[in-house]
């Protein structure tokens, strides 16, 4: 019977349905786009504090898009499910990874600041922070993809990791400040993937008439 | 007639198979509820591909057998019904799997 019903595959299919709406891709794309907007504001001479306020505002907006999308669009179409202890453990691991990622990011920033005044000969201080960004993005999103069984996160990781090296390349070879493009282009790729998945989701999963008429049952 | 006797012995566990679970649609519902903690009607309908009416009818039978329990809760002002396997349902499903596996594994090629 184990060949006829593969419970592991069944559970995986149920789990993956959580990500089949593309809303997580859209959310992560919007976060990167918010950084692009902040870079643009900085380029046109906005004060740094105003840029940060806009960044935080856009990130809150992205979170609202995710929350409202799940509540009003996804759940009425595919329903509600609570997963077992194994998935909850894996989700806890993702939380731990995200927490460590924030610590690593903050640590890298502090180290980079310290290196400006007291840099060892062998270290290129200008590349320290970008390298930390790339490694952090790749490691965090790859581990997230693994623990969440959410393979599109690998692509998201690559796109996030690309932003800072692209920025450096634009400055070095084109001698122009195109930070908005360096962050905006990878954000656009993630957003387009998310929107395609989201459109297909809306097409494949209309709201069941019965659920719409009486709530649930 | 030795072959018939061996066949009878081999297939004997089939007679003890739980018929409530053995129906394909109910088996599918129980399999999904076995791998998650709980799920609502819409989720099960999407995953199993059953119609609302069909799912509802099978749910009633599973509930009557004591294999699933229904939790009524409110999400804001909207009612939401979550379904989960009872301990009895979980044990029955596990036993069903073992019986079927044994029967199928013991069948000669």
Q: Strand pairing plus helix content of chain A: what structural class?
A: mainly alpha
- Contiguous low-pLDDT stretches of chain A (5 residues minimum) are none
Q: Tell me the span between the first and last alpha carbons of chain B.
A: 19 Å
Order of helices and strands of chain A: HHHEHHHHH
Total strands of chain A: 1
Indicate the CATH architecture of chain B.
Orthogonal Bundle
Query: So what's the oligomer here?
Result: heterodimer
| Mean pLDDT figure of chain A | 87
What is the CATH topology assignment of chain B?
Arc Repressor Mutant, subunit A
Give structural attributes.
heterodimer; A: 217 residues; mainly alpha; 8 helices; B: 109 residues; alpha+beta; Arc Repressor Mutant, subunit A; 3-stranded antiparallel β-sheet; 6 helices; 3 strands
Descriptive notes:
The complex is a heterodimer of chains A (about 220) and B (about 110). With about 220 residues, chain A is an all-alpha fold. Chain A has one domain. Chain A has eight helices and one strand. In chain A, helix 2 packs antiparallel against helix 3 and helix 5 packs antiparallel against helix 6. Chain B has about 110 residues and is an alpha+beta fold. Chain B has one domain: Winged helix-like DNA-binding domain superfamily/Winged helix DNA-binding domain (Arc Repressor Mutant, subunit A). Helix content of chain B is about 65%, strand content about 20%. The radius of gyration of chain B is 17 Å and the shape is elongated. At the A-B interface, helix 1, helix 3 and strand 1 of A face helix 3, strand 1, helix 4, strand 3 and helix 6 of B. Strand 1 of chain A pairs antiparallel with strand 1 of chain B, so a sheet runs across the interface.
């Amino acid at each position: 019977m184990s060949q006829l019903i593969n419970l592991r595959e069944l559970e995986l299919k149920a789990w993956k349905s959580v990500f089949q709406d593309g809303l997580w891709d859209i959310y992560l794309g919007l976060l990167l786009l918010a950084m692009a907007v902040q870079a643009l504001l900085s380029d046109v001479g906005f004060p740094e504090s105003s840029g940060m306020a806009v960044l935080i505002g856009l990130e809150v907006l992205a979170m609202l898009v995710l929350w409202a999308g799940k509540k009003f669009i996804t759940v009425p179409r595919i329903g509600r499910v609570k997963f077992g202890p194994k998935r909850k453990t894996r989700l806890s691991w993702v939380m731990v990874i995200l927490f460590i990622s924030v610590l690593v990011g903050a640590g890298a920033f502090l180290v980079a600041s310290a290196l400006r005044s007291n840099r060892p000969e062998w270290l290129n201080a200008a590349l320290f922070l970008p390298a930390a960004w790339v490694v952090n993005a790749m490691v965090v999103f790859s581990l997230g993809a693994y623990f969440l069984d959410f393979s599109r996160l690998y692509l998201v990781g690559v796109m996030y990791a690309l932003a800072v090296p692209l920025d450096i390349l634009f400055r070095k070879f084109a001698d122009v400040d195109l930070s908005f493009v360096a962050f905006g282009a990878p954000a656009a790729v993630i957003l387009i993937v998310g929107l395609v998945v989201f459109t297909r989701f809306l097409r494949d999963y209309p709201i069941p008439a019965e659920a719409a008429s009486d709530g649930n049952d | 007639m030795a072959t018939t006797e061996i066949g009878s012995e081999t297939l004997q566990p089939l007679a003890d198979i739980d018929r409530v679970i053995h129906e394909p649609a109910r088996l599918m519902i129980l399999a999904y509820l076995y791998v998650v903690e709980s799920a609502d009607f819409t989720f099960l309908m999407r995953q199993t591909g059953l119609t609302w009416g069909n799912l509802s009818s099978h749910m009633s039978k599973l509930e009557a057998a004591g294999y699933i329990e229904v939790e009524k809760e409110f999400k804001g002002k909207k009612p939401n019904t979550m379904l989960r396997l009872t301990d009895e349902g979980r044990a029955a499903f596990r036993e069903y799997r073992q019986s079927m596996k044994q029967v199928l594994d013991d069948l000669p090629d």
